[in-house]
Amino acid sequence: MTTTTEQLSATTLLRFATAGSVDDGKSTLVGRLLHDSKSVLEDQLEAVERVSADRGQDAPDLALLTDGLRAEREQGITIDVAYRYFATARRRFILADTPGHVQYTRNMVTGASTADLAVVLVDARNGVIEQTRRHAAVAALLRVPHVVLAVNKMDLVGYQEPVFAKIAEEFNAYASELGVPEITAIPISALAGDNVVEPSANMDWYGGPTVLEHLETVPVSHDLTACPARFPVQYVIRPQTAEHPDYRGYAGQIASGVLRVGEAVTVLPSGRTSVIEGIDALGESVDIAWSPQSVTLRLKDDIDISRGDLIAPSATAPATTQDVVATVCHVADQPLAVGARVLIKHTTRTVKAIVKEIPSRLTLDDLSQHPDPGQLVANDIGRVVVRTAEPLALDAYADSRRTGSFLLIDPADGTTLAAGMAGESFASRAEVVAADEDGWDF
Amino acid sequence: MTTAAHPHTESGSDAPYALSHLDALESEAVHIFREVAGEFEKPVILFSGGKDSIVMLHLALKAFAPAPVPFALLHVDTGHNFPEVLAYRDRAVEKHGLRLHVASVQEYIDAGKLRERPDGVRNPLQTVPLTEAIQQLRFDAVFGGGRRDEEKARAKERVFSLRDEFSQWDPRRQRPELWQLYNGRHAPGEHVRVFPLSNWTELDVWQYIAREDIELPEIYFAHERDVFQRNGMWLTAGEWGGPKESEPVQKRLVRYRTVGDMSCTGAVDSDAADLDAVIAEIAVSRLTERGATRADDKLSEAAMEDRKREGYF
Question: Is the pLDDT score of B14 beyond 70?
């Protein structure tokens, strides 16, 4: 296995999220990944051992490594997303460890929003259950590029291939229908260590990668040359010093695609055009830059550009709109109702808006859409139509997670109300069905 | 002359446009600095003279170049600082033309507004001068160098962390943080703590310092020092109150992994005299930096969470 010294050579960063029901063994899997990559250090382990012993537990409770808050330790549950860091010789990892309980759908949405990959755990004895479908649906909704189905507790089903094959087949069918682009199913035992870091001697019928091997080798960037470039302006840099009397640069992080010096660009929403004269990549001048680099653009023409504007190649500039049709996950305790006056934060732009319609609410269990719910409450996922006070240069979330996403914010107290994704919900669309009394709750 | 590719993009990575992990972390941190500059009226950088705040300052300099950093620095001076660190702080302020505010724990003690703890540890005493300085100087965003890998309560911290008018952190009432859309809305009197290094590990910080050739205070590198042992840590002998008679002083070859109050920041035995040696040492260390060198985190199982709730960073 790797040593920590070798981790010095790790080059790329993979952000991933884990999802699983309470007893699926998520903590054990996370604990094993951290432990076997030597990311649990002695003083942390000693602290866990000490507290476990104080409580009279026989073995160290590895959940204590991840449950950092008093309330979590008292209740023995995870109440919030935690971020974990580990590394191997090949790669650095940021793990969004999200609680699996149903009422924390918003936490999985939070973890999945920045993830390149989601690990969905199932218990081999139970197979695909409602919670598994919910996790797959959230991963599909958030357009997480890679999904791993980790079929855990294979030791408890005699390491039998047919058990795994049946679960993998059922999950594949379901997730493919949702449009999940890539699914990798791996039979594991997190407790015994089968196929987590080391290949399992108990499942020689399995020829695929271990969980860690897959995490190390899955591609992290999309083919960005295929995505249109998007550059939300964060801040205008004007030194006005003796050394730089005329410097005027537009600072931002490239949200998608590639930008080149000499490229004709359009500034939205004004529609003014210019040409990229220079790209300053944090201190050095470059000809080309790509997402997610933070750079500063200089344009040929002195035009009015400020924070909130979007610079895009003229050939592939997005349309602007004041009518946003989107799917939102409601993340606040106070409900969101039709007629609510909100703020919409899209890239670097925040504008006033009003919720015109809530056409449907999604039931994650069976993906049915229930019409006209009137309002959305915490953890609800629904379709909304929002009218904005100013035009937004909004892409479909399917095309860009960065420029297709937004927040709805309560203007009164600043609470983040909802996470929004513009355009179609799933890659393949679920039918709208009539309201069904049994289907309302999830 | 311009170059065709970003020089830090390493060969052998997955895709032609992949960024190295340090470039990805740097880009994310710069984005956070610029968001704050764009959305807040009066931000400030908490600067302790430790490696994390030094990296923060370096990132801020890059984020706004060729313009100056549009933020002042705020140093909470415990009165028991390492002289090398104070000298470094003053040099950095001078070199980059920054403004420095100092909140002094000693002044609060002298004025009778704070009482020295029996154990002489001053780290917990920083909270009051810090929060009062934020209120009095009306800062609405306060950058801290905290990293989520440092401590398990910090693992739950957001990049943008809303604090009430008492600077309190309530872990159960945090805003979900989605995509890279940071919500910095706050009411008058409230402020937001911002942690641009949230996703960095100790090793990332050191590798970045090496890559960017960032100068650090000398105490981070092995040197001979008069130390004595207390609670399993090597503390520096000095006017702050150590050692007691039962704590013999010895000269050892040591360095510091963190920089804080002298009363509770321990040195580690080390012969790592340069950056390469330090990185090699950390890579094989079996202890976290806080576990190795911070006494205040050992006060209780939830010491950090409790201090954060009160307004600590």
Answer: no
Q: What is the pLDDT of residues B154-177, one digit of tens each?
A: 778 899 999 988 888 877 778 889
Does the distance separating the beta carbons of B13 and A11 come in below 8 Å?
Answer: yes
Do the beta carbons of residue A403 and residue B181 sit within 8 Å?
A: no
Q: Which of A210, A197, A216 is nearest to A9 (CA)?
A: A216
Chain A CA closest to residue B3: A286
Which one, of A236, A249, A245, A312, lies nearest residue A283 by Cα?
A249
The SS3 of residue A411 is: coil
Give yes or no for residue A79 having a pLDDT over 70: no
String of DSSP letters for A270-327: TTEEEEEEEEEETTEEESEEETT-EEEEEESS-----TT-EEEEGGGPPP-EEEEEEE
**Which pTM value belongs to this model?**
0.90
Query: Where residue B299 falls among pLDDT bands split at 50, 70, 90?
Result: very low
Task: Name the DSSP class of B170.
Answer: -
> What ipTM was predicted for this assembly?
0.89
Residue of A39, A91, A92 to mutate, interface with B, max B Cβ within 10 Å: A92
Top residue of B58, B59, B159, B178 to mutate, by most chain A CBs within 10 Å, is: B178
Give ∠ CA A407-B160-B260 in degrees, rounded to 5: 170
A72: pLDDT strictly greater than 60: no
Of A239, A289, A292, the CB nearest to B24: A292
| Interface check A103 vs B, CB under 8 A | no
List the alpha helices (DSSP H) in A142-210.
Answer: 161-178
Q: What is the largest CA-CA distance in chain A?
A: 76
Residues A165-190: what's their mean pLDDT? 93
